[in-house]
Amino acid sequence: MSPEPQKGRAPSIRDVARLADVSHQTVSRVLNGHPSIRDETRQRVLDAMEALKYRPNRAARALVTSRSRTIGVLSATTGEYGPSSSIAAIEDAAREAGYFVNTANLAASTPAAIVDALKHLVLQDVEGLIVMAPQVRVFDVLAGMAIDIPYVSLQSTGQSDHRALAVDQIAGARAATQHLIDLGHHEIVHLAGPQDWIEAEARMRGFLDAIIEADLRTHPPILGDWTADFGYYAGRELSRYRDFSAVFAANDLMAIGLMHAFRDAGLDVPRDVSVVGFDDIPVAQHVSPPLTTVHQEFREVGRRAVALLLSELRGEPVSQSEEIVPALVVRGSSGPVHAALVHY
Amino acid sequence: MSPEPQKGRAPSIRDVARLADVSHQTVSRVLNGHPSIRDETRQRVLDAMEALKYRPNRAARALVTSRSRTIGVLSATTGEYGPSSSIAAIEDAAREAGYFVNTANLAASTPAAIVDALKHLVLQDVEGLIVMAPQVRVFDVLAGMAIDIPYVSLQSTGQSDHRALAVDQIAGARAATQHLIDLGHHEIVHLAGPQDWIEAEARMRGFLDAIIEADLRTHPPILGDWTADFGYYAGRELSRYRDFSAVFAANDLMAIGLMHAFRDAGLDVPRDVSVVGFDDIPVAQHVSPPLTTVHQEFREVGRRAVALLLSELRGEPVSQSEEIVPALVVRGSSGPVHAALVHY
DNA sequence: CTTTTCCATGTGAACGTGAACATCCGAACG
DNA sequence: CGTTCGGATGTTCACGTTCACATGGAAAAG
């Protein structure tokens, strides 16, 4: 009455075949949706699989097809809202497409750490790679390792030998800066991300584009590390000089730290200083004052990255999806320049 | 001069064997650190591997050993600081131990979604599971699916058939509540997490324990969803009644939303209302006022989870590591009860 | 009525590795 | 000097699946 007691080994395609009274190959065909199977045969096989609680063996399949059905994600700064949201979306999308995802975090941004993480992914036999750790070095290392795995980066790297997801960070940064200019600010400081980050560079470029276009001067951007703590530190330094009326931070965390420092220094945001961030993390609208920032669709980015990579794996032509342009969200942290603070 | 051009197939253990003039089994032994290999032979094999750029085939190995060297993580609310930090730590620790990590996110907390995610992980042939989505239902489903995979949960579930990481959420919540009581607060409201979350329940229990011990009354806790937006919503409702002088929120995001609402309602934190959170996310100390909260070591939790799971996979006895007790961090959002607001 | 074609299915081999067992050889032992 | 032992290595097989090719039969084509 009860199904055969398992004898240690999991049921294989052959066990199913025996029970359904067909060859193992027929079972394989059912498994892979081969068209030339009589309905009645297919049903018998399916019943047998059900009865045995058969589960295909991924390793055996991978061995013979030499396809792992796994994609790798190289990421940095996980733990932060943006990257981890994108990763979650990547996993969801991959799962839906029948793929597995393996993530490797960059412990540090040293070449050694990058090589380590990449080796781990290569060892894992990933079919493709999504590079979410958009540091310039990563791509150098990637090129240096002579890895022939197709990969997709979340930022344009200037290299054209792979596909990049088009998120127009430059436009976002430019919009943020232009917003401040439109409010009458002439002295705008940029608190940028780390030097070797492509995202940081793009946002800086957008900032500078807007500044130059408006024919304004600016200090050299301060290079930060994305953290709120650094923002606080930078804010403390900045509030000693006060030769600016607005700051554009390359991400929200730094912007929030910045506002904290200004508050401590007795400066009012936005009356004395306007602050604009980037990312629109969930707390951005709940801090005091609510943060003006540039909204990014992290989940959408993750989804598209998967779509792009899968289409490449399938050898499909590049489907030029339209660029994602992040949108400025104006909240309370930015306001018109206050007369008393204009330095002319 | 140049190494053999690859003929489509990647070099196998046999190619290495041929080049090193040994049997393929000897190569296998070198690969697995077998002791009985002459040094000279080992070196010849290693040289051959180097020359051919040999990489072991994971699928073949998994097929013959029936071990995938992969652990699965079931998670929810990724994108938030805590879970994603733990996941990152899990990946680091697993990588160090030579394991791969596969994560499945819970799209919703419905049984169907849970089954989906678990199926995905089982399909992936994970050797063990770390359950980071500490919802009661998950364990019911897990039990219902009759999965024989060893798993580790990040919270005590009351079920004793598996290992749980000991993070004393109850003690943390109790400390937070006691802190408010010590400040003279008698009317404390608890903004809890979703009902079916084990963590939420533990924090609520800690809260109630402290309340009962101090012989205070309290409203039934408000059940939230962990988000800052919900905190804001709850804060708006709460500020209509004002029959309390302090709120203990089950996580920082809700606490921050709460403070936002109080600010909007003209209430001053901490003069009119004290607010305490839980988690100590990076922005907690930078919001206004800096948030008093309970600090959690998310990375440490992740590391320990891996250690625990691996020791179980190896069949080692349960190494009773000491409990992690999260620590109260007092900042500006909590203060002594203000005389004018005491309702007696 | 024979030949061709195509559908439904079966047979055998291969994928790359590790386990079990076999073999060879030199050293230790009596 | 024969026997035993164990270190170093080789041989064969199995893991579960898909692929290439083979087979039988029925329908279509001549």
UniProtKB/TrEMBL annotation, chains A, B:
Keyword flag DNA-binding: yes
Domain HTH lacI-type: 11-65
Name of this protein: LacI family DNA-binding transcriptional regulator
Superkingdom as given in the UniProt entry: Bacteria
Organism: Leifsonia stereocauli
CDD domains on file: HTH_LacI, PBP1_LacI
Family annotation (SMART domains): HTH_LACI
PANTHER family named among the record's database cross-references: HTH-TYPE TRANSCRIPTIONAL REGULATOR GALS (PTHR30146:SF109), LACI-RELATED TRANSCRIPTIONAL REPRESSOR (PTHR30146)
Keyword vocabulary terms for this entry: DNA-binding, Transcription, Transcription regulation
